[in-house]
From TrEMBL:
PANTHER family: LEUCINE-RICH REPEAT RECEPTOR PROTEIN KINASE EMS1, PROTEIN KINASE DOMAIN-CONTAINING PROTEIN. Keywords: Kinase, Receptor, Transferase. GO terms for cellular component: membrane. One of its GO terms (molecular function) is kinase activity. This is LRR RECEPTOR-LIKE SERINE/THREONINE-PROTEIN KINASE EFR.
Length: 135
């Protein structure tokens, strides 16, 4: 959904699969695996005047995209018991939504943080969302 690739894509060979492909790209090379069509849409929507007024620029949109992809990676672990609990997933997705909609301010509440793609609760800092809510 986010990469534009299917799990059976012909580029996945020699033990590489969609999960490993995306996991290897996190967090610094995520732009290399995200579907270019999705990136264009993110850039277009995050550069509108209303987004700038709410403080949502390309950097924040990218941080949220990385967080969404981290959720996907944590939910698609091969071993079911290693997958993140669904209630934590929902909380993280709601947090990301609130950031994108501008209904959440930094330091207001706790956020869910993926540490090695596992969920942990941490206190949000005064810095950027990506610095406080990302690996």
């Amino acid at each position: 959904m986010l990469t534009g690739k299917t799990p059976t894509d012909g580029s996945f060979k020699e033990g590489l699969n969609l999960h490993k492909y995306v996991k290897m790209a996190l967090p610094d090379h995520v732009m290399e695996v995200v579907d270019p069509v999705l990136l264009r849409e993110v850039e277009e929507t995050s550069s509108t005047a209303s987004d700038r007024m709410r403080g949502i620029g390309n950097d924040k949109a990218l941080e949220c995209l990385v967080s969404i992809i981290e959720v996907g990676v944590s939910c698609s672990e091969e071993v079911p018991r290693e997958r993140t609990n669904i209630s934590h997933v929902v909380a993280e997705l709601l947090r990301i939504r609130d950031i994108l909609l501008g209904t959440r301010r930094h330091g207001q509440r706790t956020c869910m943080r993926f540490s090695k793609w596992k969920m942990k609760v941490v206190k949000e800092g005064r810095g950027s969302v990506g610095a406080s809510c990302r690996k």
